[in-house]
Target: Deoxyribodipyrimidine photo-lyase
Amino acid sequence: MPVSGGEDPMSQVRQMLRELLVGRENAEGFFCLCVSVLGHNDTRTHFLPLIQLLATDHNSLHTTLTSIYLEYFSKDEDDELAVALALSLLEVKGQQQTDTKPLFPDPKLQGQTDTQASATYRPQNSSIQSQSVSTNGSSSQPPPAPLPKGASYAQLAAVGGRRQTQAQHQDSTSPRRSSGHGSSPQTERQRGPTQTQKQTDIKWSNVTQDVCASIATSLTSNLNQAKDDITVVECEVDQSEKPKRSKNRRQRRKGYGQQVVGVPRCPSAPPPVLLWFRRDLRLHDNPVVIGSLEAGGPVIPVFIWCPEEEEGPGVTVAMGGACKFWLHQALSCLSSALEHIGSHLVFLRTDEEREGIGSSLLALRSLVRETGAQTVLASALYEPWLRERDQVVVSALQKDRVEVNMVHSYCLRDPYTVTTEGVGLRGIGSVSHFMSCCQMNPGPGLGVPLDPPISLPSPSVWPRGCPLEGLGLARMPCRKDGTTIDWAANIRSSWDFSEEGAQSRLEAFLNDGVYRYEKESGRADAPNTSCLSPYLHFGQLSARWLLWDTKGARCRPPKFIRKLAWRDLAYWQLTLFPDLPWESLRPPYKALRWSNERGHLKAWQKGRTGYPLVDAAMRQLWLTGWMNNYMRHVVASFLIAYLHLPWQEGYRWFQDTLVDADVAIDAMMWQNGGMCGLDHWNFVMHPVDAAMTCDPYGSYVRKWCPELAVLPDDLIHKPWKCPASMLRRAGVVLGQSYPECVVTDLEERRSQSLQDVALVRRRFGEYVDPCSGCDLVPLPPRLVSEAMGVRRLTGGMVNTGGQFLLPVITRMEFKHQSDDPDADAASNPYNAVLKGYVSRRRNETIAFLNQTDFTASVINEGAERRERQERDQRRMEGLPRPLAAQGRGKRTPAAKDRFSTVPGGVATSHR
Model:
């Protein structure tokens, strides 16, 4: 590497970079100086990481330098392809003249056959290698393997003539395999910093365009001159003897580049395939990636960001701030993974104001024109607005004679293929009904998860794109003084955004957390959940891979497997009701009276409600972008049942702050929690008593509300009940260091919520079934067609002027409240408020007694067994149940019994 003056070359480059930033040097001059100081190979490796810092503050300069870099290093590929084309034409010409005369009428080759003479110029391993040609025309190397039948050097070069590993260069006798699934070696051509590879015997960067042009011209004029040119190509070219570039050559080169940009240079080369990544940002078990390999041509991975399409219509908020940040990090990890297998991810932003491209269709058409691609592969998406977009894309590109394949892989079942035939509509909205529909109407088999590819064939010329930062997914706001507000710092430190991170979390969960998931998944103070939801949402982990690994684990909890069914159920409901994210499914509940207290909403969003369990969950959501499912129920119940705020506010906040924000799942769950979905939640989480289930010792609250960390376990979830002296010692001042409760009369507000529901049910009596008391929901045309058999017989849809109403699951306390609207919640026999466990220490006490007094434990088990047998016998004989014990047991004074006190201060009763 040329270094002047003995100074560190990187120091020289940094000095030149400073000159560039102050305006003393232009972009082209800076790049030329970098090549001069670092050399060809080190510039290819270190230039892009060196200028990466410019992407934030000097975006235009970074784009210019990147374009110069790509244009410079694409010349090697063009030279290689031109030489390969010349050799292919030369071979065809030689085969046509085999019957009349030798390929090259050289007197030194008169004693050889035509095949031997032509074999002298045939390279090994489908690439041109240095050979020493003797005076009699024989090669000093062993005879090379013949080309595959029907294949030319141009075809082999078009699918990647430089994709040879170091081992293949050393073993020249092994035939090269074409680029297929799991067989292609790693590509040397990569966009971005890659590992420096050793130079092969032929230095393609030293083959000039003049030599390639002279070879192509001599094929039509003088075969003897072509022989001399090929000999120059086969031997290492001396840089000092390179012919100078002529003016005509520069004009031809310029016109040729403007004529076709990115189209394969060889007519016989297969066209490239556009691999359109959307929400399948993975290489493991990705049928779209494997399908692109099976297409046989070079693969161009692309990601298109169109904000107008991705964010959804109206108030959908399909991509909030936290989701965009995760997407930015996931795309960076995917791009690195593609570079490791010799490919590159091309980013495009469709922004009408910035680039004049307003849709994904226009971006794909631009890519097709630029690359000459004839196939587009992508994973199917099921949101209604995205499905309509995809249908328009498929129809338009097919008119342009471009094949488009949308592959199902995002869910376990395609939601548009799930039917209710053979099951009926009773219980619709529940996961049990959905699983019955899938079992009665099975679709195609899931198949076996696919392994990731070893390499991807690269095109000769990459299409133009923008840097990842140009998508604008991870923008941070700035203060007035110019400093940046890094709101995603905690999210960045809390997650591994790569595909390997998803695999690691899955493995850790199946080895440990899965054993406690069935009974302890609601615990907020213990890692008993998988935390895989963001990876599933962005397709970094496939649902099929997760299901296979879960069923192959030692512990296979049904509750965890049913979560995948819940996910598919949510997408099925979204396909049936496209207005699910913003409109209540039960018409009467649209008229519910909601509070307009914006201060309560702000306190709920920021974790300042005065209820420690709710505040801890909302602070965790704000800082990490995630909370477990039980805590989502807690905060949703508090917002709807106690603050009387509309469920749409909670949905929009979750969509903006969750890293796993999913329109289908969030809309379905918030509709159910807001009492207007297909499946009513038959429970309401109490903001204080629920802590006995999910955070019995207060460790979760202490982590996210550190101002309450000193309070004891029994009072940490209700600091307003602490004595003033205790609060003073803990340094807690209600209203200052920790907020006071935004609402204090929880029971009264809960009763008011029930009365509001009873009022709208009586007001809209036509939507209440008089027989069962259940709410009636209008059916979508798709379900009506299935129920009437029209869709099964003709494939059509029922279209009537009226509507079909179906009774759906309704909470029992709503039915009872409708009979007595003025009754309070406490008197309702079907009160749905969960009080949680009375005390978790009771279980610990029993466990301690069982360990210390085994005899008492055995006697207790025997007594319970006899009671159970007697109860079963009475049931079989039709006898009434025995009367329960009445009265209170006598209080026994503490005796000198060493078992009367259990560690932890829990007293036990004596017999």
Notes: The longest strand covers residues 299-305. The mean pLDDT is 76. Residues 387 and 857 are 62 Å apart (CA to CA).
